[in-house]
Amino acid sequence: MAPTKITTLLFDCDNTLVLSEELAFEACAELANEILEAKNIPDRYTGPQLLNEFVGQNFRGMMVSLKAKYKYEMDDDELNRYVLKEEDKVIAKLKAELRPCVGVDAELEKLEAHRKYHLAVVSSSALRRVQASVEKVGHAKYFQDTHVFSAATSLPKPTSKPDPAVYIHAMEVLGKKAEECVAVEDSKSGATAAFRAHIKTIGYVGSYEPEKQAEMRQVLKDAGCCVVMDDWKEFEGCMEKIEAGEV
């Protein structure tokens, strides 16, 4: 492969920059169970069960999937009420307990110091949640407000990864082409979205439990990641491989 000139890095947020998924899915499970009870459906979810089944999807996407799975009725107004309720619950948890992914702070500091790339966040989560997350852990200084994109909020029609729409939208706003971008993703749905947008993607498995990392490395490779890292300290080496045209 020929060497590639990369100008822009597009970071997923949840469990890529910040350890938010476990906290968020606790709140999501409470609301999912409230909905199932209201619809007279006996099944209930714990946070880890919901995370395992729907990782990488935003709350709206999860509710659409649950609706299809259990075949109950929910109009747009009711769905929107639950989406707003979920945002408030999750943001409260994040503001209280959120931590950055191990090692990411050092890499962001280096990227900021070198100013070689444009940096942006491209997430499935609601914009309020993403902004609360990056602010809580001190990452907001690395991303201009106009460089934080949400599949749930930034698009004319809300969607969720693996739909590539949010990546395509981000590139349009930033004035970038896919071949000059690199994405960083931790989930199958996120990696699939970036792949469908024709963006080379670094997979990250450091936010998973050690016993699940080998499985997720393969999942991310199968979803289109050209290289996978266990730890953020490997990021620079991954970028060197991509820019040299080795992957």
TrEMBL record:
This is HAD-like protein. It comes from Venustampulla echinocandica. Its cofactor is Mg(2+). InterPro entries: Beta-PGM-like, HAD-like_sf, HAD-SF_hydro_IA, HAD_2, HAD_sf, PGP-like_dom2. Signal peptide: none annotated. GO terms for molecular function: metal ion binding; phosphatase activity. Gene3D superfamilies: HAD superfamily/HAD-like, Putative phosphatase, domain 2. Coiled coil: none annotated. Keywords: Carbohydrate metabolism, Magnesium, Metal-binding.
